[in-house]
What does this fold into?
Amino acid sequence: MTANNVTALAAASEPRFISYAVRDEVAWIMLERPESSNAQNYRLLNELDDMFKRAVEDDGVKAIVLGGRGKHFSAGHDLGTPEKDLHMPRERKLLWYSHVDREGAEGQYVLEQDAYLGFCRRWQEIPKPMIAMVQGACIAGGLMLAWVCDMIVASEDAFFQDPVVRMGVPGVEYFAHAFELPPRIAREFLLLGERMPAQRAYQFGMVNRIFPRETLEAEVEKIAVELAKRPRFGMALTKQAINHVEEVRGKRSTMDAVFHMHHLAHAHNQLVTGDLVGGMGAKEMASANKAQAAQKP
Ligand code: ZN
It folds into this structure.
């Protein structure tokens, strides 16, 4: 049995990094790595894809909530926890081949086509309404998960940030920044890479509703239960309609263009520093972020 078969078998059993529960026709899909601020390793993303599929196929599910257990929604892609799994074989969900043991820029490119860009595009097309329930940090890869949902409902203490320009790359792989924010603000958001508090994100329409953290889950539940009363096909068509508007505005071609810039940047970093992200791992990014946040009044 190859390592890939083992991964496939593991994916068919209960998830390890995600929990799944259905109540009142709402599927609650939670990231379950609170000890790592819900950093996303590739196994977590595969499990998330499995759970979305489960929710789509279950006729008893009319709406989906995506949340993260603990203090933070998600600190982004896993840059350095003990369960970082960049080196491991993984079951691919799209038609890309394995990234393992590829030379040069190829491995990271095929991996991110499948697990980042491919997954997010597929999740944005899920035909059931989805709410991202965001508290605390929603950083970089965290943004990607929130952005693929239909609504973002945040706690008062939530903040949004894409600091990856520090790594020399032009934003996260799913480049929706200038669709989620006005272009002038998207420039600031990327170039300065500062934390954007929920209230400011709300002003630009990136967040739908804000609640105190203590009532966030109850308020999200009310909205989700309300969504669950709508006709299934009508909601699916409405989602397709809005997705189509974004396509016509150039979302897909923008993302394809920027994805290649993103990989030029990864390759450049490899050539210059020998490291994909220019030596800016989890520790370096966290301390740079903290120093920046401390400067703000
Ligand atoms: Zn990348």
